[in-house]
Design brief:
The complex is a heterodimer of chains A (241) and B (244).
Chain A lengths: L2 H9 L1 H34 L2 H15 L3 H11 L9 H27 L2 H9 L4 H31 L11 H12 L2 H30 L1 H17 L9
Chain B lengths: L2 E12 L2 E12 L3 E5 L6 H8 L7 E6 L2 E2 L7 H5 L2 E4 L11 H11 L5 H14 L15 H13 L5 E5 L7 H16 L3 E5 L3 H7 L2 E6 L2 E7 H6 L4 H10 L2
Parallel strand pairs in B: 3-8, 3-9, 6-7, 7-8
Antiparallel strand pairs in B: 1-2, 1-4, 4-5, 9-10
Helix pairs in contact in B: 3-4, 3-5, 4-5, 5-6
The chains are: A mainly alpha (241), B alpha/beta (244).
Amino acid sequence: MSIELVLQYLVSPSFARGAGMTLLLTATSLFFGVVIGLVLALIQESRTRVGQLASLAYLWLFRGTPVLFQVIFIYHVLPSFGIKLSAFVCAVLALSLNEGAYMAEILRSGLQAVKKGQRTAGLALGMTGSQTMRHVVIPQAARIVLPPIGNQMIGMLKLSALVSVIAVEELLLVANQTASADFRYFEALTAAGIYYLAMTTAFMGLQILIETALDPKKRQRLRRVSLTERMLGTSQSFVVR
Amino acid sequence: MQHLLEIVGISKSFGSIQVLKTCSMTVAAKETVVVIGPSGSGKSTLLRSINLLEPVDSGDIFFAGENITRERKKAHLLRQQIGMVFQNFELFSHLSAAENVMLAPVKILGMSRADAHDIAVELLRKVQIPEKADAFPDELSGGQQQRVAIARALAMRPKLMLYDEPTSALDPEMIREVLDVMAELSAEGMTSIVVTHEMGFARRAADRIVFMECGEIIESASSEQFFAGTVSDRSRRFLDQILH
């Protein structure tokens, strides 16, 4: 094994572009996945029969078939209905639709974990239903769903490797192509593995940061420090309060 | 005496079980009414129907002279005038004590955080725990949590306070501190309806006692009459039971 070659791959533009594509796929698919999941979760919470049936059908379809199947299906079958999309859009579409089904369940469990009495208390104060949702339920649910969403983030990063089958130039495809061109599987795949580990490490760090931001006690401890600073006059925001 | 609240013949069923049977009662401004009765007698449902958390099937509810019974869209505006305290406190766990009190003034009335904070500190002083302003609900005892909940309800300057078994979930040694706060508010003229089993509080703070059983208001007597024993047999039987 040549460490030099691994380093060479690591800094090469094609690997960097591949990693960038992986990151872009992950971020966009996660974003749309959360949006779809939130809509589905709220529909299920609203308890209308049509909505519940529709979201149940959605979950059944997208959790019941392999992601790889969905990716290939969207890429190869949609064009025969006259819908022509780029490989990247197909990849994001398939990953988002699939992710939405899992996110829906995670978000729903978060909303349900906030007890009914909390909603009643918000309403009794005179808040509207949507104000209660925004200021009482969602802040508490967010803390509950963060760890499983962290799992999903990392899972999505790895899932994105699947779209190499429809020739989206993401990290694994780049590594594979480089390896078979140079007959250097070990080095090329090691370089890709290092990229994957670096990205998942960054995601884990991000999760810890968000968890701290959402934890009211940790946040307040930070605020207390800045209050002390203000009292010592070391901060310019002294006059604001 | 002008009535702040007038309930006229309200009924309510959950499925085949009728929990309120043509209940009528009036509450005058500054009056404190204690509602007693065995569990399952409809006391909580009665309270929840007053601030429209539980829609009634028939009958009318008048608040400050207006018929509010069928109000749905503006229910939140009515609830802003009525404070409610729950058996399980229901403090918002992601907010500190002061933030719990500040939430409604800031988010509903659009008050600045600084002004709302002043109000919160003042109200926490009123319920005797100004030092816990920055504590979170899980750092407070039950009695402290319930007093923060009372402060939170007072932050909207309600015309009426509803207490739904406010001390039932408390350890015995904490009941007193909560009842003291409630009695003080009543003495200051806060109109209150209190569902409770604490007969000591009823004797101390109530102007009137309402006795409910099986969804019916059996008796509504002035506190003096009630404790002098000039009550119906059913009320007396219940009293004998809870006073052992």
